[in-house]
């Protein structure tokens, strides 16, 4: 009679082996499935990153190289000519400045019309007359005290030209007036439109009779 346990023992062993193999295969499939899902997820992430990179604007930076300084080599002759030109220009400017200063000085003197004047002004003229006029001794017979009106022609040079004496009481006083005029310094001539011109001035000569 066949022993049932002995007969089915190899089958049990084979069933255990098959179960173990099935478990291993199942675990392997699970691991493979999870790995596949992870790979797919990773690929999606990479694709999203690539898509973001492709959509993002690319900034271009133009690098500008600094320009190199250009060195200019000037020939020695050109440098000499340049220096001579500078010197000539400086001299011209100096001459122009001097001429301008001279013109200004002349303008200060001649830009306005000016009457003929005694050197030092009216006060100097009065002092000159009081100091130089001497009452003539030969005029005592007709004593006179007062002022004699005299017109003087002042030439362009400042010298005194014609003399006109008005209402002289006697010839002696007229002679004294001419003597004093002969001792006068040159006048400052009249100026019109920047040029000296002859002019006539009126001067009053004071005489005072002092009796004995």
UniProtKB/TrEMBL annotation:
<feature type="transmembrane region" description="Helical">
    <location>
        <begin position="15"/>
        <end position="33"/>
    </location>
</feature>
<feature type="domain" description="TonB C-terminal">
    <location>
        <begin position="132"/>
        <end position="206"/>
    </location>
</feature>
<dbReference type="GO" id="GO:0098797">
    <property type="term" value="C:plasma membrane protein complex"/>
</dbReference>
<feature type="compositionally biased region" description="Polar residues">
    <location>
        <begin position="53"/>
        <end position="63"/>
    </location>
</feature>
<dbReference type="Pfam" id="PF03544">
    <property type="entry name" value="TonB_C"/>
</dbReference>
<dbReference type="GO" id="GO:0055085">
    <property type="term" value="P:transmembrane transport"/>
</dbReference>
<dbReference type="GO" id="GO:0031992">
    <property type="term" value="F:energy transducer activity"/>
</dbReference>
<dbReference type="InterPro" id="IPR051045">
    <property type="entry name" value="TonB-dependent_transducer"/>
</dbReference>
<dbReference type="InterPro" id="IPR037682">
    <property type="entry name" value="TonB_C"/>
</dbReference>
<keyword id="KW-0812">Transmembrane</keyword>
<protein>
    <submittedName>
        <fullName>TonB-related protein</fullName>
    </submittedName>
</protein>
<keyword id="KW-0472">Membrane</keyword>
<keyword id="KW-1133">Transmembrane helix</keyword>
<feature type="region of interest" description="Disordered">
    <location>
        <begin position="47"/>
        <end position="84"/>
    </location>
</feature>
């Amino acid at each position: 009679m066949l022993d049932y346990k002995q007969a089915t023992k190899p089958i049990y062993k084979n069933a255990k082996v098959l179960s173990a193999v099935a478990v291993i295969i199942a675990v392997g499939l699970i691991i493979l499935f999870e790995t596949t899902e992870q790979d797919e997820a990773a690929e999606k992430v990479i694709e999203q990153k690539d898509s973001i990179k492709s959509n993002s604007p690319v900034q271009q930076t133009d690098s500008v190289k600094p320009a190199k300084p250009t060195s200019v080599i000037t020939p020695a002759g050109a440098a000499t000519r340049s220096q001579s030109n500078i010197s000539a220009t400086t001299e011209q400017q100096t001459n122009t400045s001097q001429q301008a200063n001279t013109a200004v000085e002349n303008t200060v003197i001649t830009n306005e019309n000016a009457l003929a004047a005694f050197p030092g002004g009216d006060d100097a003229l009065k002092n000159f007359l009081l100091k130089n006029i001497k009452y003539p001794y030969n005029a005592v017979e007709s004593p006179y005290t007062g002022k004699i009106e005299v017109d003087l022609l002042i030439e362009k040079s400042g010298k005194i030209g014609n003399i006109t004496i008005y209402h002289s009481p006697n010839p002696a006083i007229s002679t004294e007036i001419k003597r004093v005029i002969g001792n006068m310094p040159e006048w400052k001539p009249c100026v019109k439109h920047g040029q000296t011109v002859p002019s006539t001035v009126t001067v009053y000569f004071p005489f005072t009779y002092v009796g004995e």
